[in-house]
Amino acid sequence: MDIILDNLPGLLIAIPLLGAFLTPVLSRAGDNVRNVWVMVITTLSSLCGLLVASRVLEAGTIVYAFGVDTISNVIPLDSGGIPIRIIFTIDPINAFMLIIAAVVGFCITLYSISSMEKLSGKDGFFTLLFLLVASVYGMIATGDLFNFFVFLEISSLAGAALVAYRIDKGVATEAGFKYAALSTLGGMLFLVGVGLLYAQYNSLNMAVIADRMQLTGLDIMAFVLFFTALAMKCGAVPMHFWTPDSYTMAPSSVTAFLVVSSQASLYALFRVCFTLYGGQINPLTVGWVIIILGVLSMFIGVTMAIPQKDVKRLMAYHAVSQTGYMLLGVGVGLAALSSTCFSQGVGMMALKGGLFHIMNHALYKGLLFLTAGVIMYRCGTRNLNQLGGLGHNMKWTMIFFMIGALAIAGIPPFNGFASKLLIYESTFLFNPLIAVIAMVVSILTLASFVKVFHSMFMGPKLPEYQDVEEAPKPMLIAMGILAVLVILFGIFPQQVVDTLVTPAAFALVDYHGYISAVLGGA
Amino acid sequence: MIESFTLTTGFGAWNALFWVIAFVIAFIIGWLIWLRGEKVYDTSKGSTAPFLSGIAEPDKKEVHIRAGNLYWGYNDALSGYYKFVKPFHTGNLSDYFLAYLLVTAIVLIVVVVLK
User: Fold this and answer.
1) Any chain B CB within 8 A of the CB of A497?
2) Residue A291 belongs to a domain
3) Which residues span the domain enclosing A479?
4) Residue A84: pLDDT above 90?
5) Does residue A58 lie in a domain region?
6) Is A490 strand, coil or helix?
7) B window 64-83, beta carbon within 8 A of A
8) Which of A64-73, A163-172, A211-220, A354-363 has the lowest mean pLDDT?
9) How sure is the predictor about A522, in pLDDT bands with cuts at 50, 70 and 90?
10) What is the pLDDT of residues A296-305, one digit of tens each?
11) What is the spatial distance between Cα B103 and Cα A448, in angstroms, rounded to a whole number?
């Protein structure tokens, strides 16, 4: 048992990879065998993520090196103080992200069992889905820049293949191609940045590079390459154009996890700003750049969402808008913490708000995409102009949609309100105008979801949907889990903030702690 | 007990409990009103059909207000804004690349100048 617990960080990647590669083989034994296998793998994988997170939150940062049996061998004696192996460094911010990936990963896999039931090619679908899950865990857990690039590429390739999985008259293929092409450009530029740092510091380990960072011209160039690649991957305006295309055409369960994948990139963006370049790059400048991207994302995302007729495209633009809130919170946090004009409390509160919103967004946006998937599954269309009156027959789906919609609009007592409140208050003290924009965006979000709610669920029963049925049970259970978490996180926000968000925020700020956890104070 | 529902923001506090109580009270009021409603009526004789001054009820498809008919005032008021923003969303991959590289260049200039 101890050997399993000691190797949990390795199992984070190993379990979904095993699941991915054996799924096509086991699919030969029939649908039931494959479904049981898929559920076993996703349960083990999510349990593993939750266990790692709980151990980190209890005992502190875990440093796990592949290929050594004792932690003292992480830095070999003859390596000049450089950890040469692939290292996973999991501190509370990583634990925070692992929890998100574990919960959403489990729900979307459970949902997919039903949503993919009538379709062919399920073995390939689940293989790609597990590859995507493994890559997200890898992006979150790794402490090595090149290793991060590898997981980023796996995530892009698996994500693009899943977006294009249902050809849909070529539209999905086009969306997948765009996602792949743009991700490849971002990945290549990220790799150039890794090369620039490796050439100077002889290491790929984030802690070593952070410790030796001199902020040369090449370092700044690498920073910009990292920054824009990761901002593009998380869908920040004006690099968001791939988001509506991909999120719309991907199967809904995949879209819900693509949101988590984007958030893993967002985490990496924050890791680069706070840890890799912590104390070196001008935090006020970078903070304001993040704030501007955040405000643009919030406003353009929501205003582009309102006129949409395709429910998933509309939700995709809202995903861009909500990413803006996260960027805003963390950007204000970065800028305020470095400024003498504001108390540390303002910066930390904004940072907590931004991080809390990442978790909340993964839950309610995942829930909303899953409800959109149910509509598509039962009615065969995403076009809001063709839908209506579904509330008569799909009561649970309607209730889950309402919960998600109220949460994303920041209506109390749902979870979106709690994180937005932290962002509003701290941003108001930092710059009242930005706080007003954030609130206006929330009102527009509510207006947009009122339109969707009316178009899909209200009105008389339409003849073509007279006998439409409620979603199958696995899909309802998956949505139910997310809906319950949305409500609980809204009613008990302080517990979530104290247990998960505050340790994550402090871990992000404490780059000395990150470095010393890996290098042992070297 | 109440503290466990209170989110402290550092500058204020928010308690979800009061909202939950408000929801429960609203639900109970709604339920009581519903209880007072007519329990038995014959739906076959048009008691649930809309009364339109003797005009026949239109087809269900025509009654439902579609998404495209909502917020026309908002869309009209902001048509100038949309004329500016929508053309950027061309769907052309070359434009996606261009936007990405443009932002990279701008961020590089800003970070170098304000180093």
Assistant:
1) yes
2) yes
3) 282-491
4) no
5) no
6) helix
7) 64-68, 70-71, 74-75, 78, 81-82
8) A64-73
9) very low
10) 999 999 999 9
11) 29
